[in-house]
Write a structure and sequence with these properties.
The complex is a heterodimer of chains A (about 60) and B (about 130). With about 60 residues, chain A is mainly alpha-helical. Chain A is built from 5 helices and 2 strands; from the N terminus they run βαααααβ. Chain B folds into 2 domains: about 70 residues; about 60 residues. Classes of the chains: A mainly alpha (about 60), B mainly alpha (about 130).
Chain lengths: ~60, ~130
């Protein structure tokens, strides 16, 4: 799954650690999501969307 | 990386309980190996022999709680590690058991648990690296 997490985080000027802290996950989890190695669960995807104030489908796009 | 791997989900309480369980384990090992065989009553010998299992069960409960306190990626890593360790450990133990049964190589059952734990730790490191 493609996602815009890294771009959105950089717009906010947050480090991976800062984003991880706000989402209550590890920095490794944020890194794995950004690099596409791990797709977050639905609850975590909703937390990410809420944090960036965007609809979930604007952040996560299933690969065609 | 190793520090992240070792410390995920741990708290000071976890480390205190781990140290306590390790002391209990060492104490029960001494009881089982040194004093147990000297007991006259068979039931006392049996109780002393299996006493180290109790702190090991404590470790299992502690690890289970630690994993439940970690985030979802770490839980996935633990799941992949456990599955991989089972997939690698069971054929390995079966092969050793068959070698023992065929009289090719004597294998002591006491080494089965440390072997399985070792395989699990290697699998944890491998799974951890996959999501680095």
């Amino acid at each position: 799954m493609n996602n815009q997490v890294r771009a959105l985080r950089e717009v906010k000027g947050w480090s991976q650690g800062e984003l991880a802290e706000q989402l209550a996950v590890s920095r490794q989890t944020v890194n794995a999501i950004e690099t596409g190695k791990y797709d977050p669960s639905l609850p975590l995807a909703f937390r990410i969307a809420r944090l960036f104030r965007k609809p979930i489908e604007a952040i996560f796009n299933p690969e065609e | 990386m190793i520090r992240d791997y070792l410390c995920a989900g741990t708290t000071p309480r976890y480390w205190r309980l781990s140290a306590l369980l390790m002391l209990l384990y060492l104490g029960t090992i001494v009881l089982a190996l040194v004093y147990g065989p000297r007991f006259a009553a068979p039931s006392a010998r049996v109780a002393a022999a299996v006493a180290p299992v109790l702190p090991v069960v404590g470790f299992v409960v502690l690890e289970f709680r630690r994993i439940r306190a970690t985030d979802e990626l770490r839980q996935r890593i633990e799941l992949e590690a456990a599955t991989s360790a089972l997939a690698a450990g069971v054929p390995l133990l079966l092969a050793l058991g068959l070698l023992d049964g065929a009289g090719v190589m004597p294998v002591r059952m006491i080494f089965a648990s440390p072997l399985l734990i070792g395989v699990y730790m290697l699998a944890q490191l491998w799974a951890h690296r996959r999501y680095r």
